[in-house]
Amino acid sequence: HEIVYNGIRVGHLVVAASTARVEREFFDDLKKLGLALLAQVACSLAFIWLFFDRRLVRPLTKLQTGVRRLALGALDDSLQQQRNDEIGRLSNDLDTMRSNLATLMAEREQKSAALQLELEGRKQVEAELLVSQAKFAGIFDASPIAMTVSHMGNDFTILDVNAAWTRAFGRDREAVLGTNGERNGMWKSLEVRSKILARIDAE
User: Fold this and answer.
1) Nearest to 71 by CA among 79, 81, 83
2) Are 109 and 136 spatial neighbours (Cβ–Cβ below 8 Å)?
3) Is the pTM of this model over 0.85?
4) Alpha-carbon 17 to chain mean position
5) How, if at all, do strands 148-150 and 158-161 pair?
6) I want to staple 95 with a disulfide (CB 3.0 to 4.6 A). Which of 25, 71, 79, 104 is the partner?
7) What is the torsional sign of CA 32, 34, 38, 40?
8) In this predicted structure, what is the pLDDT of residue 126?
9) In degrees rounded to 5, what are phi and psi of residue 146?
């Protein structure tokens, strides 16, 4: 650019402009913007993860631990969670199942205990019955009076005789067991026996 003073050219001016500084400042601003954006994304991801962990991961982990304890037979620990979403409904349903299982197990244990007591009572009764039968058999066989044990049905089948009976009637024990007085010749007929027994009962 020419410089003129009072119509006289006294010099010229050259203006030179460089874009280096502008470019440097632009890239600095771009870096700052990128770092700010990266920090914002990191903060958003951290917030999302915390929310996800609190609302989903932790409840599911807690529910999974409770289900494992339930599978091992720990029926006293509640699985219920105070939530109004799907996880809350699932945990409440599982807790209802746990409660029902605990009730069933308690009832089964009570029935098992009652059955055990009943079995022990039966065993004791059977043992006492065996002792009583052994005593009766000893007294029956050792009695000096001839005795028989027979069915009180129509045929009066002989179930047992004692040693005094075999000596008194000269019959072998094995030969008369399972017979009656009519078949083994001890009675003329069963009718006669019935009449005699009826007379004895009347007297």
Assistant:
1) 79
2) no
3) no
4) 89
5) antiparallel
6) 79
7) positive
8) 92
9) -65, 125
Nearest alpha-carbon partner for 44 in 33, 32, 36: 36
Strands annotated E in 39-131: none
Give residues with Cβ within 8 angstroms of 3, minimum separation 6.
9, 10, 11, 12, 13
CA nearest 201: which of 166, 152, 159, 154?
152
Q: Residue 180 and residue 151: Cα distance in Å, rounded? A: 9
Residue with tokens 């003073």: 5
* DSSP one-letter string for 124-153: HHHHHHHHHHHHHHHHHHH-SS--EEE--S
Band (115; pLDDT cuts 50, 70, 90): very high
- Rounded to the nearest integer, the mean pLDDT of the chain is 82
CA angle (150, 155, 156) in 5-degree steps: 15
Give residue for tokens 């007297």: 203
Alpha-helical runs (H) found in the chain: 20-52, 58-71, 86-142, 163-169, 173-176, 190-202
Assigned token pair, 169:
């009637």
Which residues have CB under 8 Å from 45's CB, separation 6+? none
E strands, 47-191, in order: 148-150, 158-161
| CB within 8 Å of 160: residues ≥ 6 apart | 140, 148, 149, 177
